[in-house]
Amino acid sequence: MTTLEDRRPLRVPEEPPATRRPPRRSVPGKGRTRxxxxxxxxxxxxxxxxxxxxFSLSAKQYDGLFPQDWTLSxxxxxxxxxxxxxxIRRSAVLALGTVALVTLLVLPPLYWAYVRNPKLRTxxxxxxxxxxxxxxxxxxxxIDRVAEQVAFLEGYSGTGLMVLIGHxxxxxxxxxxxxxxxxxxxxxxxxxxxxxASGAGPVTTLVRCIIPNIMPGLVSGSILVFAISWGEYSxxxxxxxxxxxxxxxxxxxxxPVNGTSDPRGVAVMSVFTFVLFLVVSLIAAIKGTSxxxxxxxHPTAAKES
Amino acid sequence: xxxxxxxxMHNLVKRYGDVTALDDVSLDVEEGELVALLGSSGCGxxxxxRGVAGLAQPDAGRIMIGDKDVTxxxxxxxxxxxxxxxxxxxxxxxxxxxxxFPLRVxxxxxxxxxxxxxxxxxxxxxEGKGNRYPNQLSGGQRQRVALARALAPEPxxxxxxxxxxxxxxxIRESLRDELRRIQQQxxxxxxxxxxxxxxxxxxxxxxxVMSHGxxxxxxxxxxxxxxxxxxxxxxxxxxxxxxxxxVVDGKVSWEDVFVVDAPAxxxxxxxxxxxxxxxxxxxxxxxxxxxxxxxxLGPRTRLHVKALDERLAVDVSSRKAANLGPGSVVQLNVEPxxxxxxxx
Lengths: 305, 344
Hints:
- The complex is a heterodimer of chains A (305) and B (344).
- Helix content of chain A is 68%, strand content 0%.
- With 305 residues, chain A is an all-alpha fold.
- Chain A has a single domain, classed as Orthogonal Bundle (MetI-like fold).
- Chain B has 344 residues and is of the alpha+beta class.
- Chain B has helices spanning 45-53, 95-105, 110-123, 139-151, 169-186, 197-203, 221-226, 231-236; strands at 7-16, 19-29, 34-38, 60-65, 68-69, 80-83, 157-161, 189-194, 206-211, 214-219, 240-248, 251-254, 258-261, 269-275, 279-282, 287-296, 300-307, 310-317, 329-334, 340-343.
- In chain B, the strands form four sheets. Chain B has a six-stranded mixed beta sheet with strand order 6-7-8-3-9-10, with helices on both faces.
């Protein structure tokens, strides 16, 4: 048998790489319309958080767009509130727990559905519609009733665990859809077969070949689930009678309707939450697009042997 | 490199509902041999390959690699390497990481992995591209990475599922030759699926022609092209003229053009098949034909002609055909020894 060192490959002509970006053509008039539309959408989205920010920085009641007297006291004082810190901790644990549980409930079965049992995917997609056909209130009462009647959940009724279950049921679809789209786009079947033919087992295949290639879907789904869980009020309110104080319940407790006196604290938390999610989303978006752009503009991509 | 092993498929059956994709298929591939599975879409060739890979479980039959029965082994436990039609590289891994993947999952040590990856990068002509991602490569380069990845764990059998069909014509031809060179250098047993008869005839030691889930004929490329035993092969491979002719007194004739002996056991009719290059233009003494459409193929021109109430294809050198257009009248003859007869 010859040694590999002696083997010189034939030099064959090569076609150009597949991912060369076509030159972008400017279309007269299109740019301005696009910019105006973009500005309108941006204004629509930015005005509420901006108004909340101004309100949180105002020293007293004001008329018009901007406060007459500015203060940072609401921002500096609010994080000394131990109730708020506890609520933030609960909300973070609840949101992260929801992301983790939904990931466990969706990712392995959906992968299995793609590579082995397509009917399972249909069932999952149908199940994902349930939260939209049932009002949250009904779902929360339903879960609560089940908790009261199932032996192993005895004693958990009205606790954070039940809120977690409610959030998982609520967020299932918002995780399933982006992950499903990412799996479909990545060609999970092909990757699975290639990994199997390379000798990889299902766990190695999922961890090393599938997850890295559906990461944009996983990130989108996780951010959505985290955001929904963080901001969800009604389930915790109904299931725990507001006893399990998470950030939205804390915020509602501070509104004038409840006889308290710090609506600006609510504004601070709203702005804080908005900025938190904005930063996380931007990091995720930049990380996602930077990989794509690296691939498409690699300096040696155009050179051929 | 592990020594190549034989691959044997015995009486394989695979059904999808009412459709029989594999109908009692048996085939032996010798050590270091490359057998091409040739057939049109839906003939079962890819199902057979996927059965060998373990990606489709046969309903009946047995698959042996060497002396080991692998019929019920999962894909990852079979000693195979597979190259897919659409490359199926891992987009998140560089060229080197893709090639190293089968070695990493087998927990090979780092030195062995880098040595083997280096060998394969050189073997497949991918020097300098080890750090690129798949979408920074051309189609041909991607397929070479896929080949290197398939060869990395030194499998006993290499399976190639239409590996060239996604490439354009020039690259396809070059890569085809390179594939053959690598297969012969490595000495690996290979099963190659294609619907392109030129590709199959060029690359394979033997060609297995498939139709309706069965292997119709398996022979050397020359025999498949020049002397096919099966009527389906005769009609499927190459450019052929086929005439249904009566058997009279043990003889088969077409007007005054030829008279040949009918094979023993022929019925009332036979199918007389002869290739387009076995019909030639003569100055005189042939039968008259009128050119319908000339098709320029480079060195040769294929003339579609009407003669004796039949339509024939005739291959002539392009120089000879230079002055022939639609309506031109030519005298033709058929080489009698090239005529093959099949039961009608």
